[in-house]
Structures are given as structure tokens and as C-alpha cells.
Amino acid sequence: MRNDLELDAIIEDYLLGKLNPQETEAFETLRRNDASVDHKVVSHKFFLESMETFAAQSRLKDQLNSIHAEIDVETLASTLRPHPSKVIQLWRKHKSAIAVAASFLVLSLVSVYSIQHNTKQKEQLVLLSNQVNRAIKTQNSLIRKINNSATPAGKPVVQNSIGGTGFAISTNGYILTNYHIINGADSLYVQNSKGESFKVKATYTDPQNDIAILKISDKNFANLSSIPYTIKRNTSSIGEMVYTLGYPKDDAVLGEGYVSSKNGFVGDTTQYQVAIAVNPGNSGGPVLDNDGNLVGIISGKPDQTEGAAFAVKSKYILEAMRAIPQDSLGRNKLSANKKSGLSGLKRTKQIEKIQDYVFMIKAFN
């Protein structure tokens, strides 16, 4: 407890510029090396800024009250009504006070609007499905390969497609992704890292936790090798290093960072907040720790904060897998691996092992 209080005091001195150059350099080194300290600095900075905003509003209110007290509004009104000719005299006498009051009133209104506007914006969640309108001619290799059909020449048909990411949770074609990616789709496809596309269908959806489980139904799909990652059963800690692989563009993109909060959007306990830069198309991507344990699944980000994302916790992935009636699976039982094949490997080797298990999701409607 004492150490936490001392750290808070040092953070405040750092943010207020009270540390000497040597102390500042030492503290910045600590921030770079300790993600939990960096998170505390960011949180404390936001707290100080909020306090300063509140103090500024209080000072503005006091100034307005003081100016209002100096002006006898009733006397001015009664004087102005019967004596219109004295308006100019009153303006000349009180113009300084009236001008200051008007200025503060305008500033107050702008400040209130700005705060309300920013508050509303901060409460908005950006889902990271990559929505695009494309002509069939830009997707014809995919459609022809899967459906064996063609569009008449010179008559491209526009379809709405939503792109995202998903990853394998079994060797026989079960894929986990976000519900918001597939919601309302007429047809679903996945594409692997080699560019091969397969038709899929939704076998389970959990809109509340934004989870969907798909099953590859394409006869050309060959079973995968053993899944290299495990699904984490306990909670991750703040500062734990994590990474994700996703499809914000046509080839996979790596994002690295750390768990920055145990709660997600507006305190949602089903999610983590992670310090990873993400883009539309990253939705549904796996979030893994350094040992190859699946921590969660990317689902969105705060629209006013760069370098941050929300991830549904692995607990709810396990619940979704258990929720599928086992008799509907036949021999295709779903169960999480008990041992990771990624532990102890360098990041480059880990990516080599998981890239065949991460898919681009394409939902057409």
C-alpha cells in the first residue's frame, strides 16, 4: 500500500514537471520497461486533466456570478423601457462589464457543448468489421472457385461484403469469429493464408458476447494439423504482453501490445482493453499471450482513442464451445488443447505456426 502511494506521488510530480532531469530520465526508463506503470501514468494524467477542467469551469462560474452581481438587471430594464434615449449612455457606462459577461457566457456555452460532445463520442464503440461495396468483377475468382458460376460480361453486380478475421478452434473446420461480422449475411466464406477459399455456415451464435462459431462445409477442405495454441482458462493480468494476427487488408497483419485494463467498453467485464493498434478487418482476430495461450478475441475499439482495442475474454469462448449441443456435432467434438505448441518460441516462429489457423472472413448480403 505504501509503495503504491509513493508511486502515485512520483507520477504526479512527473506529470507536473516537479522532477529534476535525472529523476525524469529514470522514471521514463521505468515507464518504458514496466507496462503497468505506464498504464498508471496514463490514468493519472487523465485524472489530473479532468480535475483541471472542473476547476476551470468552477472559476468561470464564479466570475460570471461576480459580474452578474455587479449589474442590476431590474434597474437596467426599468430604465431602458421608459427612457430609450439613455440606451447609449448606459451602454457607454456598462459596456466593459457587459462585454466581459457576454464573452464568458459564450465561452461557457462552447465549453459545455464541447464536453457533452466529447462525452458522447467517447461512449461510442467502433466495431472493426471491414465494410466495403465491391463489384462482382473484383471478387470473381472467389465466387467462381466456390460457386462455379460467372457473371455476364459487362454487367458487374454490386454486393455488400463485410470483411473480418476468424481462427480455428478445431482441426476439422470449426472457426471462431465475431457475431457482428456475420450478422445478416446471406453467404459466408473463409480464406486461408494461402489464398484458398471455403464456404462456411454458422453453427452457433452468441450476440450478447459478440461470438459466432462457423463450420467449413466445403468438400475441398482438408483437416488441419493439431491446433498450436491453447485457450486460457484464467484471467490475464494488467501489463501482460499480448499480440494479435488479423486481416485489415488482404494479407495478415501482426499487432503487439499488452493488457491495459481488465474491463472493456464502459466497464464491460466480459472484455479486456488491450494496448494494440487495430483497424477495420481486425474484428475476430485471436489475442494470444507470449506462451501461446488464447486470451481473447478482438471485437472493437474506442473511437476517440488510438492504439487501444477491446477483446472478448477467453472464458466466453469456452462457454460458446460448450454451448453447442454435442449430439449435433456427431464425431466432431470440440475441446480445447491442454498444451501449447508456441511456448518458448520467438515471435517470428509463433507467427509461422499460427498463420495457417487464422482466416479472413467474408460475409456477403
TrEMBL record:
It comes from Pedobacter agri. Pfam families: Trypsin_2 (PF13365). One of its GO terms (biological process) is proteolysis. It comes from the Bacteria. This is Trypsin-like peptidase domain-containing protein. InterPro entries: Peptidase_S1_PA, Peptidase_S1_PA_chymotrypsin, Peptidase_S1C. GO terms for molecular function: serine-type endopeptidase activity.
